[in-house]
Amino acid sequence: xxxxxxxxxxxxxxxxxxxxxxxxxxxxxxxxxxxxxxxxxxxxxxxxxxxxxxxxxxxxxxxxxxxxxxxxxxxxxxxxxxxxxxxxxxxxxxxxxxxxxxxxxxxxxxxxxxxxxxxxxxxxxxxxxxxxxxxxxxxxxxxxxxxxxxxxxxxxxxxxxxxxxxxxxxxxxxxxxxxxxxxxxxxxxxxxxxxxxxxxxxxxxxxxxxxxxxxxxxxxxxxxxxxxxxxxxxxxxxxxxxxxxxxxxxxxxxxxxxxxxxxxxxxxxxxxxxxxxxxxxxxxxxxxxxxxxxxxxxxxxxxxxxxxxxxxxxxxxxxxxxxxxxxxxxxxxxxxxxxxxxxxxxxxxxxxxxxxxxxxxxxxxxxxxxxxxxxxxxxxxxxxxxxxxxxxxxxxxxxxxxxxxxxxxxxxxxxxxx
Length: 418
Known about the structure:
The structure is a single chain. The chain is built from 16 helices and eight strands. By secondary structure, the protein is mainly alpha-helical. The chain has a three-stranded antiparallel beta sheet, with helices on one face. Strands 6-7-8 form a three-stranded antiparallel beta sheet. Helix 3 runs antiparallel to helix 4, helix 5 runs antiparallel to helix 6 and helix 8 packs across helix 13.
């Protein structure tokens, strides 16, 4: 512990401009000859200040309360210095003042953390991901105002109770605009983002311990929607008079045949279409979400869709005519219904269809599918393999048929022996 610092606290007064009969009270902190001052936001009548004692002089209730406040302030300033000593931090007048006022890292607030995270991560995370963090911030803002009656709290106030109360608030929140309340997994996503920010606070030493240490995120596993080969054929064979509907249908089918997400298809340019070493057309692109390089050999049906819009792509410098995400999913919903398919299908279902129907059941190894989808982990691709019970049944039926033929041949050989 440091013992070579000279440290003192002095209360003094200054004249006030607004009222000449009162004096404003200040605290002066001095460390090794350096000093700083703090306004205590209190005043005392001119005739009732004892400069030698640094206290109010008199027996009225107000003056006794003022002296009690000064005694408490003195103790808090001394305690701030002690905390810094215990933490082996440099003792300066400014450091003691910041700790007393709650302005140092020890007293960072939740909204300071959120602002710091969102500012520093803006150049690291994708715009879509940042949009989700802004959404989490809105929930935090509303929760603090409605449930805690404040706009901010200190990070040290974050605890298990805060997290569970925040969880229940998101689950029960009813938006003014007509939309569904947050699902379980949606709620968990907001809490996961808050957890990532508090982990950052621990690394920055703004928090001593992780408030999520006793909290467990609980996601509900859900089957990912995809199309069977029969359903793909239904869409292919359903014709629309509207050119817009036909275009949306083609773009969706192109995603089914390539595994590319909406944004990846939207950003494709003709220059990314190349002839590979096998003499076939390949798409060379990068996944927007993970920044992973993806090289995809084109299936004949995907190639036909590109050929259909080749002339238009030369004029627009876009490989395919992709509408906005909102309009695409709106028209896609009607296309699915018109095709006689009774499933909840979004554009992202095309990626699931590519894995579950187009590639894995037709003998493409899961490692190759993972590479084509641009997954950074094989475990992500294995999610699709869980739904392939039909393929497992078909493969086992072939094995059973193989053994039956083998037993039949052995039986025939035995019967032919003398």
